[in-house]
C-alpha cells in the first residue's frame, strides 16, 4: 500500500490549530484530540440527490445514493475515483453523468484538536439530459474542533471552470463563487411512464457553493457543502395518465461532516475558501 503524504495546505492548517490552542492557554498535550468531540465522520461523494414522480395521483420518491463515496469515521484517509458515473432513475434516462471523479475524506486527530476534511472533483458534468453542463468542478469542506471551544470552525469553497445552461452560451462566473450563487434553469425533461414517452416542461435553479448546517444548540451537528445543486420540477397533463409531475434534485461533488459532541455545540462558523 502506498503511503500518502499530508498536503501542504493541511500541514499549514494544523500548524494554525496548534497556534490557536496555545493562544487560548490550552496545553496541546492535554488531549490526544479535541475534548469537544465524542465521535465524528467525514464523507465526500461524486453525486447524490433524489427524484419524485407523480402518476395517477400517487407520488414515488427514490433517493440517488452517494455515488463514489469516500468515508471516514475514525482517523485516517479514504480515497475513491471513477472514470465515469451515469445514473438513470424512474424512467428518466441521462439523469446525471459525471466524468473522471475523485473523492477524499480525511479524519485527523491532533493534540487538542480534531480536523475533518472532505473534497470531491470531476472533470465534467451533465445534469438532467444536458440541461446543465459543467466543465471542471471541485468542492472542499474543512471543519475543525478545538478543545475548550464549543464553536465548530469550517471553510468551504467551490471552483467551477465553465457552465452552460440549456445549450446556451458559456456563463462567466464570479471568482470566487459567492455562497449560494443561483442561476435560473428551464427546459424539457423526457421520460417514459408505463411505456408512454412523455415530455415535461421543467423549471428551477442551479445553485453553486451551497452550505447548510443542522443541529446547532444540540450535541449532534451536521454540516453539508454542495458545490453544484440542481433543483427542477414540472408537470404535464397526459391522456390516460392525468397529471404527471416530476421533481429532481441532483447534487454533484458534495461533502459533509457530522460531529457528536461532548456538550452542546453553540455555533458553526463557515468561511469561504
Short account of what is shown:
The protein is 6% helix and 68% strand. By secondary structure, it is mainly β.
Task: Give the overall form.
Answer: elongated
Low-confidence stretches: 1-8, 26-30
Mean pLDDT: 89
Helix content: under 10%
Please give the radius of gyration in angstroms. 21 Å
SSE string, helices as H and strands as E: HEEEEEEEEEEEEEEEE
Would you count the extended β strands for me?
16
Query: How far do the termini sit from each other?
Result: 31 Å
Number of helices: 1
Class from helix and strand fractions: mainly beta
Note the beta-strand portion: over 45%
Describe the biggest sheet?
Answer: 9 strands, antiparallel
Multimeric state: single chain
Task: Record keyword descriptors for this entry.
single chain; 273 residues; mainly beta; nine-stranded antiparallel β-sheet; seven-stranded mixed β-sheet; 1 helix; 6% helix; 68% strand; disordered N terminus
Task: Kindly describe this structure.
The chain has one helix spanning 8-23, and strands at 37-44, 47-55, 58-67, 70-72, 76-89, 92-110, 113-127, 132-146, 151-165, 170-171, 181-193, 196-214, 220-238, 242-252, 255-261, 267-272. The protein is mainly beta and 273 residues long. The strands form two sheets. Strands 1, 2, 3, 4, 11, 12, 13, 14 and 15 form a nine-stranded antiparallel β-sheet that branches. Strand 5 (76-89) and strand 6 form a beta hairpin. It is elongated and about 65 Å long.
Amino acid at each position: 500500500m502506498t503511503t500518502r503524504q499530508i498536503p501542504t495546505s493541511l500541514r499549514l492548517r494544523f500548524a494554525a490549530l496548534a497556534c490557536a490552542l496555545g493562544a487560548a492557554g490550552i496545553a496541546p498535550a492535554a488531549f490526544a484530540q479535541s475534548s469537544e468531540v465524542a465521535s465524528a465522520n467525514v464523507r465526500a461523494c461524486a453525486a447524490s440527490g433524489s427524484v419524485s414522480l407523480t402518476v395517477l395521483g400517487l407520488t414515488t420518491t427514490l433517493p440517488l445514493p452517494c455515488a463514489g463515496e469516500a468515508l471516514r469515521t475514525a482517523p485516517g484517509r479514504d480515497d475513491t475515483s471513477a472514470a465515469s458515473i451515469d445514473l438513470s432513475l424512474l424512467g428518466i434516462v441521462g439523469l446525471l453523468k459525471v466524468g473522471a471523479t475523485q473523492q477524499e475524506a480525511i479524519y485527523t486527530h491532533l493534540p487538542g484538536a480534531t480536523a475533518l476534511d472532505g473534497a470531491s472533483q470531476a472533470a465534467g458534468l451533465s445534469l438532467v439530459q444536458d440541461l446543465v453542463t459543467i466543465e471542471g468542478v471541485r468542492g472542499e469542506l474543512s471543519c475543525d474542533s478545538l478543545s475548550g471551544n464549543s464553536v465548530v470552525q469550517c471553510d468551504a469553497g467551490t471552483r467551477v471552470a465553465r457552465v452552460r445552461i440549456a445549450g446556451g452560451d458559456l456563463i462567466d462566473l464570479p471568482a470566487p463563487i459567492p455562497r449560494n450563487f443561483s442561476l435560473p434553469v428551464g427546459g424539457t425533461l423526457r421520460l417514459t411512464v408505463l411505456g408512454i414517452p412523455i415530455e415535461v416542461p421543467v423549471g428551477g435553479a442551479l445553485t453553486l457553493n451551497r452550505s447548510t448546517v443542522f443541529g446547532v444548540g444540540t450535541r449532534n451537528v451536521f454540516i453539508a457543502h454542495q458545490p453544484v445543486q440542481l433543483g427542477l420540477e414540472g408537470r404535464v397533463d397526459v391522456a390516460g395518465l392525468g397529471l404527471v409531475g416530476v421533481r429532481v434534485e441532483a447534487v454533484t461533488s458534495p461533502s459533509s461532516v457530522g460531529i457528536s459532541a461532548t456538550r452542546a455545540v453553540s455555533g458553526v462558523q463557515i468561511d469561504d475558501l
